[in-house]
Amino acid sequence: MTRFRAALAFALLLLLAAPFVLPPYYVTLMLPALAYGIILLGFNLLFGYTGLLSFGHALFVALGAYTVAVMSGRLGVKSLEASIAVAVVVSVVVAVPVGLLCVRYVRIFFGMLTLAFGMLFHSFLFKFYNLTGGDSGIPVVRPSLGGMDFPGLDKTAYLIGPFYFYSLALLLVLAYLMWRIVHSPFGTHLRAIRDNPRKAEYVGVRVHAFRLLAFVISAVYGAVGGTLLAVPVGLADPDLAYWTHSGVLVFMTVLGGFGNFFGPVLGAFVYVALQDQLMSLTQYWRFALGVVLILIIVLFPTGLMGLVERRHSRARPVTEQGDA
Amino acid sequence: MAVFLDILLSGVFHAAVLFLVAGGLQLVFGVQRIVNLACGAFYALGAYFGVTAVTFAMSLGAPAYALLPVLLVAGLSLAVIGPPIERLLRLVYDRDEGFQLLLTFAIMLMSQDVFRFIWGSTPRTLGNLSLAYGQVNVGPTLIPTYKLLVIFASIAIAVGLGLMLQKSRFGRIVRATAENRPMIEALGVNSGRVMVIVFTLGTVLGTVGGALVVPTAAASLDMIVDLVVEAFAVVVIGGLGSMRGALVGALVVGLVRSLAVFYYAEFEMLSIYLIVIVVLIFRPTGLFGKPLE
Amino acid sequence: MSAVLETRSVGKDYGEFRALHDVTLSFSEGEVVAIVGPNGAGKTTLVNVLTGLARPTRGDVLFRGRSIAGMGPVRLAQMGMARAFQLVQVFPQLTVFEAIATAVISQQRRSLDLWHATQAIDAVRSRVAQVADIFGLRERLDGLASYLSQGEKKLLDIATAFALEPQVILLDEPTSGISSSGKRVMMDTLMEAARKTGIKTLLLVEHDMDLVAEYSTRIVAMTEGSVLADLAPAAFFADPQLAATIVGKPHAGAVA
Lengths: 324, 293, 256
Description:
Radius of gyration of chain A: 19 Å
Largest sheet of chain C: 6 strands, mixed
Number of helices of chain C: 9
Strand content of chain C: 15-25%
Distance between the termini of chain A: 9 Å
Order of helices and strands of chain C: EEEHEEHEHHHEHEHEEHH
Low-confidence stretches of chain A: 314-324
Largest sheet of chain A: 2 strands, antiparallel
Oligomer: heterotrimer
Structural class of chain C: alpha/beta
Low-confidence stretches of chain C: 249-256
Radius of gyration of chain C: 19 Å
């Protein structure tokens, strides 16, 4: 077993054991980390593997959150599976036209277009009070997991128990799926598009179509993560779609290392932990986070996983192999 | 008719301020190819510092008429933050633009807490000081003189900038650096110095914009994030890197907002985003933009 | 023999400038055609038109009987035409294996496979290994493309074009940037590769007339946007006037 595989197995063990060994506060803290892990797996397909930096990805996160809120809160459909399924469908329906428009452009124009769409959605959520609850948002009613309600459990017990394992399971399944996608011929073509779109065309790679597909897949992951994000909070609110939330997604991804498969997930956990710690230390935690971000950009652009890889003197700078 | 003029003038006032910020963005992008997500921070800084400066001046017994000059000076004096920030950005000049965006994002994050630290979380206003300038009859309607003065100031700055860029030696160097940096360096120009000056100029345009607007709006932490989207809308519509575009884009955004606020408040920002999306689709380089690469 | 690739009275203007002037050419299977001429003669424009990159202002260009005017490179690659450029293009963060695999995946129509690991698909691995063997890159498969020497990068670039198994391949100065001792090796490799990958027609833009003399079956000489001559090498070099116009000095290198 290579060292990396061992580390991975150990991390998995920690994640499984957490609800039993950590105090409830820290377990509930891991919930958004799990959700962001899913979101960022999708985001990095678009960013790290296809080379498209979206500054509006939070749109899909918000879409997922509002889906579960409307389903469970307004329509009384408690099944989380149903909410997730609907979130998937809705995100595809939105991602296809938005993606069709956005992937025709690259780099800064792509970033600006996605930012515009993200803010368009935010504006819609914010202003159309009757539909979306305006800036108060829509509350999320505790969903049932796999048909089970857990009536005996109070909110915290539900969250650190069944909901935690549900989220973890979802993360693992979706991570496995993404692993396959990234290592597949499709993934190879995506990376070719990232590295040299012009040459890729000459090698028969369908650049536009595959950028769109990557965009849609990342949107789906974003929405699924969004549903999980809203449940512990109990609320879906417009801030989820604000452009700075999209910026934080990029922050997390770069923090963990966008050149590595596991980087973004690591980034999610580290960011959530970091933010929590900083918030308890000072009211100026945003400043501290800004400093962290600058340090990463200037000193450790390959992120935390990049540091790990360097330590093991891997000659290959950026590949898709988190190495196994 | 009065209503129409009201909308028009309020739109032009908004455009005047937006032009300053967007102009700053365009300069920096045109020459340094950096998209500055911290432009809202500069704007907010100008607003906050403007409040502080005016309050201080008033406490020294300055007359209410000193409002505009004090604000201008306040905005201009903030030029000092330009060089250190440019120094920081210099570290990522030759990197992927994603990193540059993130760096300006980090600066924006930090500024939120810096301003909170200095000025607190509640918005700061100058009350009704601007009324000291009275009101002016424009046709059938009355508009605060202050707003007119700001519009004129903005026009003056626009003209000054235009002249500088087109006629002066420095302006030519700036335009040349925007077109072809290596060439300019080969010709012996210290492009580093050009960068610092251009960036500082861009910064100052933002801070002056914020300072000038503060009598009519409150200086608040929200400015840091809210302005970015509007400024970007201006830049997209007008075309990345074009000063003329900043002017036209600012007018479009200012007037559309003004109209929307009047007729259908829900659609205020929505209409802007829609225009941005439409422009990006049909004319991605904007009305006056130069094609990228 | 029916024409694989042909142009019919093709003209191409760039604004006022007439880059191509009434060019009618027809290429068949089995030919190795050298397109020669001084700079500015229109060779690149002709190649651009032939590969669908430039839409002819007048006339038409057909591939296997179908008009391909202005058709993008992706569709053309699918139809069976590949091109390698003079300036080496790499995928900086892909390994040599992955670079070639990209082409193989296109050729095998596998690009929508989101499930199987590229490395594990036998059909892809063996094909990549075959192509790598032909171009002498077998040892370098696991390394990053950007770590190759300039010459190896060129080989890789051309290898990816060959891996598409096109019917027609267009090579833009394949030996440029290669030392004179290496040029023949490169040309031999190319010929062998063409044979092994079943390429029917090769078009080369070349400046080195020795190579042209030795390897081509037909020479198309361009000058100022028109075809000056379209002959077999023997006939071409038999006319010293002709060679002189192209090269600038009389050339004695005819192969009987």
